[in-house]
Description:
- This protein is an alpha+beta fold.
- It has 2 domains: 2-9 and 16-46 and 193-330, no CATH class; 51-179, Sandwich (Jelly Rolls).
- The protein is 23% helix and 31% strand.
- The protein is built from 9 helices and 15 strands.
- The two termini are 24 Å apart.
- Mean pLDDT is 85; it is low at 1-19.
Amino acid sequence: MRRWLALVAVLLLGAVGCGDDAAPEWIPDLDAQMYPEDNPEWDIAAALRAVDVCALIPWPDLDQFGAVRAVGTNGIQACYARIATRTEGHVDLSWALSTPPLSGGGIGHDRRIGAARAWLLSDTDNSTPEEIERTPYRYCALHVELPPGGTVSFRVDSAKGIEACSVAERAAEIVLREWEHHPRQGDSPNTARTSLTGADPCAVLAALGIGRKGSSPGIQRCGFRYRGERIGVGYEYDTGRPPADVPPVPDPSGNGYRSNYPLVTVGNRTGYRSESSGRHSYYLPLGAPVDLPSLADPASPNQTWTPTVTIDGKDQEIIAAVGEAVLALFD
């Protein structure tokens, strides 16, 4: 999941506004103005969560790009297809839904996919011809505005000789065609069914006694204030174990080393936490690990993925309280 988010963030910086992953530094007295109770993104997020994202590009349509090796979930409302072309090389195609509207601007180009507005960024936009010649692959990123609001994002990595942006634009045409059929969760056999399928990250607000006013909704992330603290709750598929400390981190006491990702227990779940710029992030498992073939890595053939809630804030006591409320939704 983090891989997909990193790619979108790097390639489409400036193309869209704050997304599901954004964590703006809110000012308390401006929260209600920035996020009013009638914010249309509440309805947009609910509509997008109800869509079976893998059903937006049916398997027979993927066949036009080559022999399909794998299709499946690779994140929250995200799907991935690994395709080996009939001529040479491969095509890696990812598509995902997000709530922020398309804004354009920055590096890239305006496009029209049918009647829909779009923003395209290719390797030719941020690499020299010499750099492109040295790389063994091509890439393209495309954001397309969806009719009810929100966007669908495409990322294509392809072997040389295959026009990645042509693949992205053709994939976008298919998605817009299928969008008219309103595919619902469960329509595609390639979508993994987990505890996070269609789950609302803002569902915890009711348990905490918080209303919509001043809260920021999203498909996979919800932002709000609780006990005066700015909190972010997000869903993702995690490896279920802390990242490796590379390089090792010396302990401030001077006695050996400490982990950047110490274990933490909230309720009956044990996960891990990290810290950056005074804010803590808790990663807590929500259920048993699941197999996501679309994220398979030959270097780690037995890797599974754990439905996980991430909670970030400054006060760990408040983070833990929010964590207990979220975990209760899944018990």
